[in-house]
Known about the structure:
Number of helices: 14
CATH topology of the largest domain: Rossmann fold
Distance between the termini: 18 Å
Radius of gyration: 20 Å
Order of helices and strands: EHHEHHEHEEEHHHHHHEHHH
Structural class: alpha/beta
Number of strands: 7
CATH architecture of the largest domain: 3-Layer(aba) Sandwich
Amino acid sequence: MPPQPILLLDAFSLLYRAFFALPPLTTRAGEPTSGLYGLSVLLLKLLREQRPKGGAFALDLPRPTFRHQRWDGYKASRQTPPSTLGRQVGRLGEIIGAFGFPALASPGFEADDVLATLARELAEAGEAPMVVSGDRDSLQLARGGVRVLYVGRGVKERCYDDAAVEERFGVPPERLPDYVALVGDPSDDLPGVRGIGLKTAARLVTTLGGVDGILSRLGEVQPARARDAIAAEGEKLRLWRDLATLRDDVPLQEGPRWAPVTAAGRDAVRTLFEKLEFVSLAARVADAFG
């Protein structure tokens, strides 16, 4: 049998995905809960299907990161979340606390960097980390024994290892930042190179060796229009690649990196679901926790 995974959960990303995937839902008192409900459905599903040893949550902090300091344009177009989502963020801590998994964050870094650091540490310790995120950047972590469960629009899931990443993008996971530097990433406001398509980007990254190889062997870039477009961006490509690269050396607070699934967690989750009026979910808790 495969080893039991340790779930590494991107808390805000998953809440965001759930919020936009479901119609509005409120308690009898009028408190919005659709995002919390969708997140809870996903967490129970993960426990039931993956039977993990345990898990941890990664959080974003409400302050600029090193990426914002390097480039003012990073995520510059991001809008303030709807108030009905913002009200649910306050309850997110209750869900995290009920499941009993630690919540880790680090000033100056994003949740994705925390996930990268946890995944590296756990893989080096012989564990089987499974990153669960709705952020495509996380797919670069799907290597070296780390799997990534990507939660897309509509909370649809797909599990990636290195082979699955290469099948989808045409580049291995560790080359995704180079690929993103060329094609861009609207969610992070990384512009990419105008006129460079997905297939051209994958071919250049694999044949010339990423951004550094492309810039040092610019004369070999074909077609000519692609060469001219890349030359016009120059060193910006290295900046965009660096911004897209997850850091796996994040300083984390002292304490456990993950916690096991427990009977106490089962009881706390059921109690919280009853409080939030998630009646159908409360009935599923026992099966999910095993």
